[in-house]
Each structure stands twice: as C-alpha cells, then as structure tokens.
Specification:
The chain is α+β, with helices and mostly antiparallel strands. It contains two helices and six strands; from the N terminus they run ββαββββα. It has one domain (14-120): 2-Layer Sandwich (TATA-Binding Protein), CATH 3.30.310.80. Strands 1, 2, 3, 4, 5 and 6 form a six-stranded antiparallel β-sheet that branches.
Length: 121
C-alpha cells in the first residue's frame, strides 16, 4: 500500500496532489516508464539541477523528501514525492514550514518540476 501525503493545512502556502480542495490541489505526475526508484531518482536530479538551494533530506525507492531554502530570509519549503505504482502516479506535496502565504511559490515550483519532468518522459 503506498504512503499517502497529508492534506494541506488551512494556509495558502501548500499544494498537494492528495488534497481534493481546489485551491490546494495539483495534479500528480505520471510515473515514468522505468522503475519507481528510477522515477524518484529522475525527479530528485531535476530538482537539484534546476532549483537553487535544494537539499535532499531523504530518498527511498518509492519516495523522497527535499527542502528548498529561499534566498531572501531563508524560509524553508518541503517537497515530498511518493510513488503509487498501482495507479501509475507520483504524488507530490510542496509546503512552507512557516507563515500563511507563499505568494504562489510552491505551486510554481511544482509546475516547473512538472514541465521539466514531462520533457524527459
């Protein structure tokens, strides 16, 4: 059974593919045509190459946790990736650790990662 991501708190600083509320929802990513571990490796690599101040917190065969630190004031956002091989999806959650609003940064990060990932598929 795949791990599930928690829904976003009632703050405008989070997006999640496992959250059905329209203002928080983002579509999950399609699973690449490789193993789940290779898909996670690809997503982590794309984050490290394409985003400044990205740090891998944990990486397993079917999940990863990355953190992104803003250049201004050093705010930290967490990105979680979880493979649901049965559904052929990679669920994603991007959320700020503190504050109420992120000015859309987490949604922009997810959509940029989606575009980079889709280019590689």
């Amino acid at each position: 059974m795949p791990k599930h991501l928690p829904p976003c708190p009632d703050k405008k600083n989070c997006v999640c593919s496992d959250d059905d509320r329209k203002s928080y929802h983002v579509e999950p990513l399609p699973l690449c045509n490789k193993t789940p571990a290779e898909c996670i490796d690809l997503l982590v690599s794309l984050c490290q190459q394409s985003f400044d101040r990205c740090e891998v917190q944990t990486k397993e065969e079917q999940s990863a946790h990355l953190s992104f630190t803003s250049a201004w004031l050093g705010f930290v956002d967490d990105v979680h990736l979880v493979v649901d091989a049965k559904a052929g999806l990679v669920h994603i959650r991007s959320a700020s650790r503190v504050g109420y609003s992120d000015l859309g940064i987490n949604r922009k990060r997810v959509e940029k990662l989606r575009a980079l990932y889709n280019e590689r598929l």
